[in-house]
Amino acid sequence: MALSFRLCSSPLICRATLASNDNGRNHHANDAAFIRRAADLSEKSAGLTSPHPNFGCVIATSSGKVAGEGYLYAQGTKPAEAIAVEAAGEFSRGSTAYLNMEPGDCHGDHTAVSALVQAGIGRVVVGIRHPLQHLRGSAIRELRSHGIEVNVLGEDFQSKVLEDARKSCLLVNAPLIHRACSRVPFSVLKYAMTLDGKIAASSGHAAWISSKLSRTRVFELRGGSDAVIVGGNTVRQDDPRLTARHGQGHTPTRIVMSQSLDLPEEANLWDVSEVSTIVATQRGARKSFQKLLASKGVEVVEFDMLNPREVMEYFHLRGYLSILWECGGTLAASAISSGVIHKVVAFVAPKIIGGRQAPSPVGDLGMVEMTQALNLIDVCYEQVGPDMLVSGFLQPIPDLLPVIPSEEATFEIEPSVNPFEASIIFFYKTWDLYGSFSNFSPHPVRMPYGEESDDYRTWSSVEHYYQASKFVGVENPLAHDCVERIRTARSPEEAALIGRSKQRQNPELVRSDWEDVKIEVMYTALKCKFSTYPHLKSILLSTAGSVLVEASPHDLFWGGGREGEGLNYLGRLLMQLRSEYIGESSVSAQNASLA
Description:
Pathway: Cofactor biosynthesis; riboflavin biosynthesis; 5-amino-6-(D-ribitylamino)uracil from GTP: step 3/4. In the C-terminal section; belongs to the YbiA family. This protein has helices at residues 24-42, 80-88, 111-118, 138-145, 160-172, 174-182, 212-223, 232-238, 287-295, 308-317, 329-337, 407-413, 462-469, 477-487, 492-505, 514-532, 534-541, 569-594; strands at 56-60, 66-71, 96-101, 123-128, 149-152, 186-194, 227-231, 253-257, 277-282, 299-303, 322-325, 343-349, 377-384, 387-393, 424-427, 445-448, 456-459, 547-550. The protein is α/β, with parallel strands linked by helices. It has a nine-stranded mixed sheet. A five-stranded mixed sheet has the order 2-1-3-4-5.
């Protein structure tokens, strides 16, 4: 029998009539069905964009009919709640909104809550509270302050059917929850093996163990990950490409872990024309080879002690949510022993290869008795062509209950705790604290189509405008086409991908003065954003006295770098803008006192 490990193996059918509140069982069943539908929706962009917090929203009328629904497409795009109420139109008034997770894609942005309030939503059912502490509970409190009834699964009412629905909400945002709780990306170990537990023949030959259908599923797994990790032995023996091979959407970064850098000078992974490669190695290893890799555009990151835990903590700081491990048995065993593997996905092919020296998927873990074996939990099985897909968790998804007070709630309890007292404030991803400072935040700006132009247009984000400005004014049809592609890109992530790749592949399309004007372009766009949105300006002013640092560990121009070696121009520009606003306020105060 074919079994599915997906959250919902068939479309949900919601009843046309909602039972009365007196019939608690049916009432819970309907709430659970709509919450599961919201969870399913939230995964719609998997493989199309880089991993991000997954939000889905379903608007259901009092009669139980779906009036509208939506999901967050990518970081920095329109919230799921806003899309759903637009689709529902006038049917939103008095209806119930079902959210798989409490709103909060970008700190400082209230678009999702405002959309629900302005649409006249009467009740909101939330699957789970937001995992990130600086966002947790904020949207729920705000909704309740507007008189909207808010119910949270597992808190306001409980039942078996609701617990199952809540679990689906935990699963779709497992990467975000692990990021919040364990400070490492959510890591999945994937391998294909024969029925007798071999990942290759004794000779090392491994193409192919699994079927074409299974390999297609692997491409999907890659597309839903920030990065794919392999070890040096995999590079030497298999020379993989590690692409998603779907022709569109998100392609993960390739990561190679190699302590000695005993790697070939020519390899498919050194081709970074379409997707980047990062090599993680021991500090001081083969400096000449590091220079060779750098000349090919491969990024090399050195570690004092190269081990899976250190590498994962680094990529957590880099903002990665989800990592797919496609390594051999030695590195897999090290990663499991380090406690960084959360889930295992194994494709078992109905083949026997034998061989005493044939490698197995996991190397020595130091276990000598079967009672020491690691047991998977929430195990699922699915037949994929002739293969059997077995998946399960090595570590349970951390439970978000009981509620941990947010900084705001803590400040209300203990006024001496000031959330803004730090001398250095870091920001990076839009979902992190102070994420609205990012040029990727979901705040459209109205800027001219060229510095001397009177043709003002709305750009979906600062990043859209910044990337397009590279090509504005260049008398070349390809440059004009590039500007329009960037302007209409669905997310800041896609705008950046288009702009950066074109700049690298076709430098002749970039305006000749770009290096001289790019800082001013960014500053002008940032000033427009913070001037357009008063609440963002207030957040910026609240940081007075603190140093602002864009925490990207790899961008040494706009960011602060891994060890503070970056120029941090984005942080500098924000501090410059903050000083300008403070100066304007002082002048206004002086004029008022003289009036």
